[in-house]
Amino acid sequence: MENCLIMKKQILFCGYRDWAKKIYSSLDNDIVFCESSDDFIKLNPKDFDIAFFVGWSSMVSSSWTDKIMCICLHPSPLPKYRGGSPIQNQILQGEDKSAVTLFEMNDVVDGGPIIFQKEFSLDGTLVDIFSRIILIGTRLIGRVIKDYKEGEGIKSKKQDNAEATTYKRRTPDMSEIKIKDFQEYTAKQLYNKIRCLQYPYPLPFIKCKDNTILYIKDGEF
Known about the structure:
CATH superfamily of the largest domain: Formyl transferase, N-terminal domain
CATH class of the largest domain: Alpha Beta
Helix content: 25-40%
Strand order of the largest sheet: 3-2-4-5-7-8
Number of helices: 7
CATH architecture of the largest domain: 3-Layer(aba) Sandwich
């Protein structure tokens, strides 16, 4: 499908995570920025032509997605790894590569038509991984904005739902490393759990004597 947009209003960028803000700061300075759901609900979709949602966990209602083009950045090779905590879930599943995906939002979570998708490596620390996401995300969003401003059509392709996998958002209690884990998991699997839960995510931890907690900030494999 192809959607042709005529520039007449503004572009909105929604994102509150540090890496999302870094993408925004690298874009044109004529874009409206929103970093909280409280501020978002005060906005009117009629004031915008395009809205980008980057590192944004709050649900976006059909009052937006049915009226204007809402584009989400999801760090997974959609349709695989839809849902929450995509980076963590991919690393924990032993994936070596991922992708930055821009897709048009609809009523299916992470299920809208794909506009752009660019592969990147999951090697290294979360700092390394998010540096790649920031670089690629900036380039892809910049391309969409350029096409929009030049009156070019924004092409997208439907996802193959038969290939879709969905994972739930991880919770802090899932960061615990238990004694049995040392017997059931390989060193690489435990290392992956440690590196995918570095700051700003809930650090992996071990419960010790007298209800004390040992937090693990880093590991080596």
